[in-house]
Specification:
The protein is of the alpha/beta class and about 180 residues long. The protein contains 4 helices and 7 strands. Strands 3-2-1-4-5-7-6 form a 7-stranded mixed β-sheet. The radius of gyration is 15 Å and the shape is globular. The chain starts with 10 loop residues before the first helix and ends with a strand. It binds S-adenosylmethionine.
Length: about 180
């Protein structure tokens, strides 16, 4: 897979999707939207006001737009090409993120799944800034893996609730809810 390919929904996508369908409302930011699976689930909910969906892969944004139009949801999703921190703006109720979370492999640079040398760098970049853009009762829904290298104090500043743990063949996936500590 190259950067030009669009990430096909996988176990991590469906793990996050279950909680998006159950929890999100208000103003929602879907980071790394890929084919738009999370953005469309959010936009289908009447309690969601608006979804901003961002991906740095233009082909992903094109595909998500096509799918949103087919589903009659295009007017409820603001799809943009950009990097995650560009779109941390205003006051959000929810940030949804199925990030690239695996450690980089020798000679392969793939932004769909590689979150940097350790795997956790993209998540760390987001968490350093996200709390400034959440409403006081706002929250983040985040997926990562037992293979993701995360600094031990990465979640400092957030209350963390483990919503679901999914054992797979080589790894475990986690879906967590993070709320900034006031
Ligand atoms: C694991 S895929 C998730 C796709 C989709 N949200 C899902 O749940 O199936 C990660 C997505 O994040 C995008 N991405 C990676 N780094 C990014 C960044 N810095 N800013 C915005 N999008 C990024 C990739 O292009 C890819 O579409």
């Amino acid at each position: 897979m190259t950067l030009e390919d669009v990430y096909e929904p996988d176990e991590d996508s469906y793990l996050l999707l279950r909680h998006v369908e159950r929890l999100v409302r208000g103003r929602v930011l879907d980071l790394g939207t890929g084919c738009g699976i999370q953005a469309m689930a959010a936009a289908s909910k009447p309690e969601v006001e608006l979804v901003i969906a961002v991906d740095l892969n233009p082909r992903a944004v094109g595909k998500a737009l096509e799918r949103a139009k087919e589903a009659g949801l295009a007017s409820r999703i603001n799809l943009v090409i950009g990097s995650l921190t560009d779109w941390l703006r205003g006051e959000l109720d929810w940030i949804i993120f199925n990030p690239p979370y695996l450690p980089r492999e020798e000679g392969i640079s793939e932004l769909s799944w590689s979150g940097g040398e350790k795997g956790g760098e993209t998540i760390e970049r987001l968490l350093k800034r996200a709390y400034e853009h959440l409403k006081p009762d706002g929250a983040i829904l985040l997926v990562y893996s037992s293979l993701t290298g995360l600094d031990k104090d990465i979640f400092r500043g957030y209350r963390v609730e483990l919503l679901e743990e999914l054992p797979l063949f080589f790894e475990r996936l986690f879906c967590v809810l993070l709320q900034p500590r006031l």
